[in-house]
Amino acid sequence: MSGGRVRGRRRRWIAGLIVFAGLAIAGGVVALYLANHDADDDAQAAPKPAPVAATPVAATPAAALGPDGTPVITLDDAARTQSDIALLTLKPAPQPVMIAAFGTVLDPAPLAELMQKAAQARAARDEAGARAGAAAAEYRRDQTLFRDQHNVSAQALEAAAANDRAAAAVLAGREADLGALGDLAANQWGAVLGPDIVAGGAFARRLARGEEWLVSVGVPPDRAAELAAPARAWAAPASPSPAGAAAPRLELRLISALPRVDPRAQAPLLLYAAPSAGGLLAGMNIAVSLPGAPRPAALRVPAEAVLWWQGRGWVYRRIAPGRFARAAIATDQPAPEGGFIIADPEPASAPMTIVGRGAASVFSEEFRGQIQLGEGDSDP
Fold first, then answer.
1. Is residue 237 part of a domain?
2. pTM score > 0.85 for this model?
C-alpha cells in the first residue's frame, strides 16, 4: 500500500516537470518572436534623413578662417543674385579727419527775452527820435521868425532851444540803451547773431520760435589748430538706433564763433544752427564731429555695409574671388555723409571690395552655419 503511494507521487512529479519545461520552451519562442517583430517594426518606422536644403550663402568649415579669425564665407554670383547681395568697391581718396567734440543745445528763452527787450528799446528810440525831430524843427522855425522881424520873443526862442536840447538828450539815451543791448547780444550770441537779435531779423525770429536750435560746440584746445573749414559739423542723433547701429547724423550750420570759452573745458566755442526735426531738446549734450585736415588716402564705408556685433563694427571683406570674411573696422571717425572713414588696409592703397546691400543676410548665414557645425560635432 505504501509502495503504490510512492510510485504515484513520482509519476505526478515527473508529469509536472514535463509541463513546466513545455511552458518554458513556449515562452522563449514567443519572446523571441516578439523581439524580432519589434525590431522589424522599428526598422520600418525609422524615418529617412530629410535632405538639407542648399543655402545660397555657405560658411566653409570652421578651420577656414579669415584675417580676423572669423569663418570664410563662400559667395558666388548665383548666391549674390538669389539673396539680393551687392558688392561695393571702396577706392582710396582724401577724407577729412573728424575731430570729436561736445555740444550743448541752448535754451531759446534768453534769446526771445533779449529780442523783446530790443524791440522795446527800438520803440523807445524811435519815439525819442520823433520827439527830437519835432523839437529841432520848432527851434529852427523860431530862429527864422526871430531873425526876420522878431515875430517870436527871445524867451520863446530860448524855450524852443531848451526843448530841442532835451529831446536830443533823450534820443541819445535811447540810442545808448539800444547800443548796450547790442553789445550784450554780441557777447552772448556772437558777432553775427547778436546784431540780428537786436534788429529783430528773420533768422533770430525763427530761433525764438523754435524752428531751429542753437548748439554751442566746444573745440578741444589741443586740436583747434587742426580745424579745416568748420562751416559744417555733424552731430549724433538724439535717439540711439537699435543695437548701437549708426543712424543718420544731423548736419549743423556754422553761425559764428562765440566771444567766450567753455567754462568747464576752457575751450573755444563755436555757435551752430541745427534742424528742429532732429529730436533735440534744450539743455541736451550731444556728440559733435568737426572737420579737420584731410587724410591723404582713406576709405569711406557706408552705413549699410556696417554690421554691429558685440559692440564693434564689422564688414564682410573679400579676401579671395568668391570668398569673404567678417573683419572689424574702426568706428571712431564718422563720415559726414554717413558711415565711417577708415584707413586703407590694402597694400599700395588698392581698392577694397566689401559686401554692401545684403550684409545682414550674410551675417545670418554665417552664424547659422556655425550652429549647424556645432550640432554635428556633438554627435558621438
1. yes
2. no
